[in-house]
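Q: Predict the assembly, please.
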Amino acid sequence: MNPTTSTARREDDVPTGKAGATSLPAASPGSGLPMHAFCTELYPLLRSITGQGVRDTLSAIARHIPLTVTEVPSGSPAFDWTVPPEWTVREAWIKDPSGRKVVDIARHNLHLVNYSAPFKGRMPLAELRSRLFSLPDRPDWIPYRTQYFKEDWGFCLSHNQLQSLPDGDYEVCVDTTLAAGSLTFGECVLPGRSTDEVLISAHVCHPSLANDNLSGIAVATFLAKALVDIDRHYTYRFVFAPSTIGVITWLSQRESVTPQIRHGLVISGVGDLGAYNYKRSRRGDADIDRILAYVLKQSGLQHTINPFIPYGYDERQYCSPGFNLPVGCFSRSTYGSYPEYHTSADNLDLVRPEHLEQSLDLLLKSISIVERDRKMLSLNPKCEPQLGRRGLYSLVGGHNEGQKLQLAMLWVLNKADGLNTLLEVAIESGIGFDVIYDAAVALAHTGLLTSEVA
Amino acid sequence: MNPTTSTARREDDVPTGKAGATSLPAASPGSGLPMHAFCTELYPLLRSITGQGVRDTLSAIARHIPLTVTEVPSGSPAFDWTVPPEWTVREAWIKDPSGRKVVDIARHNLHLVNYSAPFKGRMPLAELRSRLFSLPDRPDWIPYRTQYFKEDWGFCLSHNQLQSLPDGDYEVCVDTTLAAGSLTFGECVLPGRSTDEVLISAHVCHPSLANDNLSGIAVATFLAKALVDIDRHYTYRFVFAPSTIGVITWLSQRESVTPQIRHGLVISGVGDLGAYNYKRSRRGDADIDRILAYVLKQSGLQHTINPFIPYGYDERQYCSPGFNLPVGCFSRSTYGSYPEYHTSADNLDLVRPEHLEQSLDLLLKSISIVERDRKMLSLNPKCEPQLGRRGLYSLVGGHNEGQKLQLAMLWVLNKADGLNTLLEVAIESGIGFDVIYDAAVALAHTGLLTSEVA
Amino acid sequence: MNPTTSTARREDDVPTGKAGATSLPAASPGSGLPMHAFCTELYPLLRSITGQGVRDTLSAIARHIPLTVTEVPSGSPAFDWTVPPEWTVREAWIKDPSGRKVVDIARHNLHLVNYSAPFKGRMPLAELRSRLFSLPDRPDWIPYRTQYFKEDWGFCLSHNQLQSLPDGDYEVCVDTTLAAGSLTFGECVLPGRSTDEVLISAHVCHPSLANDNLSGIAVATFLAKALVDIDRHYTYRFVFAPSTIGVITWLSQRESVTPQIRHGLVISGVGDLGAYNYKRSRRGDADIDRILAYVLKQSGLQHTINPFIPYGYDERQYCSPGFNLPVGCFSRSTYGSYPEYHTSADNLDLVRPEHLEQSLDLLLKSISIVERDRKMLSLNPKCEPQLGRRGLYSLVGGHNEGQKLQLAMLWVLNKADGLNTLLEVAIESGIGFDVIYDAAVALAHTGLLTSEVA
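A: Predicted assembly structure:
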């Protein structure tokens, strides 16, 4: 089921600029502030798997990067699924026996169970209680709950507030619509010299939750922004879609694109204080897996490399056995592992500018390797070529053979049998990727090497 | 030389009963007692590689399970070997100078070197001594010796007795026959829905030795008994044959059956106090190897998993390179590793009912996995299927995704590419096999999965 | 690019002599002395990558073993290289302002930068200084420098001497020629029953340096000497060539031979006190890699097994990706790792007879395994054959099954599926190679096994 790997040479891609030309700049110091401001702008929007909140979010993204928005009508098939009716919320509140609005979505988006069906009526607290959700362990926080697949309704509130509700009859208003409409996703496609693609995916369905996943939206947006003006080998495709059904819909609409995806990352939970986590693709040994492990190791930051498991974020879909795409997941704290996860405490204080900036920097470093990593083929495979007469080698022999670039050239030439990537050579040799890449560029310039599509 | 693996679907085998229906019951408490009683019944029989002792043993087994007995005439070829003449013993004794019978097979079967040729005569002790075998380190025990391939004779006795023999002339009577007859083996074949077979093999050639191998005979018999009345996927073939020449003869007579053997175990030495030992098949990574390692690990009992070595029991023959069958060896104390091995001290006290029962229980657990383990193929491999609308998934999202069966379903679906067995999924996921199996059954019922012959 | 492996049976090679007949004798005690004497004889010769010093060295080798000398004319192409002009030195000295010869190649070959172009003239010390090389850290030693690829000249001297030179005008005489001539290499080919080859390579271009690489020349020469009179399975090819350009030239002249090279070793730096180092071939898992690791382990001597890296000695060329030959490198102290390396302190005191002798002994042990290691195929693969009736097995059963040769026979028979080498069986079984080999010989004699070309 894996997309077949094209082995056509990418002749056009023998680096012709100066060595290291396609290396990306690091995240600029202070770039965390506009990302955090962007999270702040997006925080109040009432996102769900469909509806205006998603559209407004995509419009905000489109002010930073070129974005194509696709609307897929309710009822459209998406593999085993069907695009659901679109959800619209006008108002949603509960009035206590005294007529006071004690719970109101106007105060916090999490108060209404996401995708609640319309309801109006009165009922005693005892009856209402089964539709009220709280967190006894975290009595100040409002939980986040969804109810996509059953027409029903409910409210979330803090446990303290729940405890304080007086007995009596409550008036409930859930003025929502579940009706024919569409599911919305956005794509930012940045064409490269190659039609091979790098996929970056962030979900856009969580209302007023900051780390999960405004942080992912912001970092993905600013990553795309950093790639807009550079010379790209790969075509980059940023997907901003609702989780699960949104990504399933995207995959069903873009199935023909998937064989071109060479590397991919789901980005989520990248703004909190937690140590980094990289979850490998289902393949476990994809280039992107090696690259992220390398960048995190080189960073010296605390981190964990985790095997693939079939739950978490949208890598679940990209790595389903029928696609099995080389897509990993890049996070700080992982899905469900921190107390604030899926509660009102996942707010703009949990996400810090410096954490967003560090995450962006690691992704830029990773993309910088993605762009430059490749398999090389020596055009002079029998014996070492004479580096001296090409000006590639110190002309006087002696003790100075330890120089790194010269060693790197020997490594690259010896491994250039079309089987090893430059990053594999870097890891095996212990020489930094940048030096290995510069060596490959220098050798390619003299016609000793050609590169192949990885 | 490995049998080719059929990849035909076993459509008929999508479990149609309730989840876990083919799981076997545990060994019932107290079941060690009838097994020990069976050992006691078999203990006095004078077994050898041919002859009446084997026939009487098979008759006793046939009182518990359906058994087909095959007689292969002396002189029949069996690969590199020839079925030997049949051995019959009428009497065998030594009289001391005073005419007293000091050694007599009527007192202990081990006194006569097994397969001794007939002899009658008188000789001084000095001459007789070269034909008397004892254990100086264990002066009370009688050793067990055989002499299959040379027409000769000898006696075994305790070292204390040997020391006490007075000088003088001794009368020797070995009233045996080595004559045309046959080699006898028994088979209990329990047909399953599939013609693929599970082989269970125990040797039946040791006279008056309890752990090696009345324990194996008893546990194999009671294992067969437990399988008689259940609904079986596999066809089970229990082989009760003399060691080495008996199993070689069986293989030569049943060579056409061997390609159907999917899993197999040699059972021996399963009644003593020792920790468990599982010896892998020559392949080293057969399903049966994974299953036994898993069951022993889950048991929490002390055990060792050993690599294949080309000596030990009849796995030597099943795992010869021309067959290379997926057959391992299940034991407590191993071949030659305990002092009582091949001596009169390997008696009915060394073997305890509770040890037999525990061994049977581990084998039932193993067969229970053999029956249910399989490779699965998702019929909906692109993206996750919608479990909710099939009633397979909690209908309300939120924090309760940790439920085991749901995780198990996600694991099974993600791994259902026809390459992984359910046990491999259990091991990788850390979820118990039973839960993984139940998840697969639930998914198969809804048409999301099909199973293939492993 | 790997040479294809012939799988033709070597019927002619079923050992027909007594077991272990082709095992080589150990290095005879005292054999280090003639090797050290040979180093002493070769030490004064002014070797370089071309010229009379190489020819004189090859003549000296030819007094010990049959040697074919090849001259390749200057200007001949050798893959990416061209055979350089031949270098001839008549005299080379520096006179100080008082007219005294302060530096003179007649005193030490290292004084002249190797391959210096002709020059005559006078210049002040300040100008001369840029052409004078010394080792400030080792003020008594003369460094070794070369300048093959630029027509220039220079001198090497001790730092103490450099410091003591008075100011003033110096007269310089470099009376050399760089002119059409040839590059010279020698080969000792010892034909075996098979045309498959074992390559042993030592470089011959270093002037007055003892460990690097008179030790290699001496040990390779005496190794060849030990093989001259034995019955050989393989054809042995000893190559004595200048490093880099010499071996590249050899490969270009003998490219058609390379597919026959089954095993190979570069020998260098084998006379000093350092612990042994074996550097694996680029393949990493070649038979020769396994053999050297085994011999060093069995020796009990301190040693390190290193992965392949693309710098060091001439394994660089043999293991370039277009050849990728199974050639490792056998050394004591490695390339560049000891202070005396490439200085006048790498002299006849650094190299000791006992170290040379031990190196030769390890190589003889390795070749002894190379000659006997092979993949075996059982001609009786179904069940164990009856060893007893062939006189291969103890005729009385019982406790004596632990005998090593018998176990070795069972291992060899079980593994004789044409996939495993005898050394792999030795390592897996923990039984010594010699016993495993003897078992294989015994089994082959009875027609139970045949051997295949490894």
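The two ends of chain A are 18 Å apart (CA to CA). Residues 112 and 273 of chain A are 28 Å apart (CA to CA).
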